[in-house]
Input
Amino acid sequence: MNKQLHRMGSLKTLAGLLAAAGLAGTVLAGCADANSQDGAAAAPPPPPVSAALVIEKPVAETQEFSGRLEAVEVVEIRPRVSGYITAVHFRPGADVKKGALLFTIDPRPYQAEADRAGAAAGAARARADLARLELQRAERLLEDKAIAQREFDEKAAAHKELEASARAAQAQHEAARLNLAYTRVTAPIDGRVSKAEITLGNLVDASAVLTSVVSLDRIYASFDGDEQTYLRVGARRDREAVVKVGLVNEEGFPHAGKLEFVDNQLDARTGSVRMRAVLANPERALAPGLFARVQVGSGVAEPRIVINDRAVGTDQSRKFVVVVGSDGKAEYRPVQLGPVVDGMRVVRSGLKAGEKIVVGGLQRVRPGAPVTPQIVPMDAALAARDGATLALHAAKE
Output
């Protein structure tokens, strides 16, 4: 009897333990299900981004370089004769015309030399004229057999010698008159004069630099172009390159010019080639030595892939964009870029027209992760505004 009671108690204990175990399993299963549901609810949605379709349109490619303005004509004014400066006739930095008087060198010694040479030339001419008359008389006497042939020959030779002496004396007179004229130092070109480097009362010779004059009606913009620009515009003589220039205080490139010079070889060390454009300067606003931003284009529009520059990211030395695939996932895509034209970046390789790329919210995208694209036009201002809106939205979240 006691054995039966003990067996029945053991069965009841076992049943209680099994019931407790089942209840615990149920509780644990319920907790696991709750945790899985909470995890699913906590998973963040794909980040919102601005995306635009890659477009292809005719673009006249341009390239920008740094350069300097140079004068077309630069003249150092030096005296041709020595002497004391007796007058300075210009204001420093003034515009002068060709032939304008700049300096006067004491002309008195040169005037005296010119007068002496003139007198000597006159005397030599008088002797030559007398010899000519004597030769004419000798010709008549020779016809009448009144003189010997030898005497006639001597008079003919004397006449030639005196004619040569007269011409030499006349040449010396002309040289003296030139030296006298050189005492008036004039501007050889139209342009702007510098200051007087040597002032009144100083003794000068031909080695001295009195001042300088630079032309300003036209001006050069010299720069070093790259190999691609040379192949696009420098080597194509059948096309006229379009050159525009802007100064440091100007927006854009308001000064139009013409490519005037391309060097005959490229520098193998730097891969650059010397180029020069010429610009009209009617208002004399452009001065030699100014820094210039030079834009060079072929002037011929060709189909090019263009994107918003905000869509471009940098991975060390490589440029990339993020393409939104058909499955809504982000794809890392390296690209080769060209210049910026009308606010849009030219893409030389890596993209095709019609592909969808991220133009706003690029910092929240991971390659291979899904995104929520919001389609916007491929426009610089609109994409910038949309990118700012998405950034504000992300900050609020």
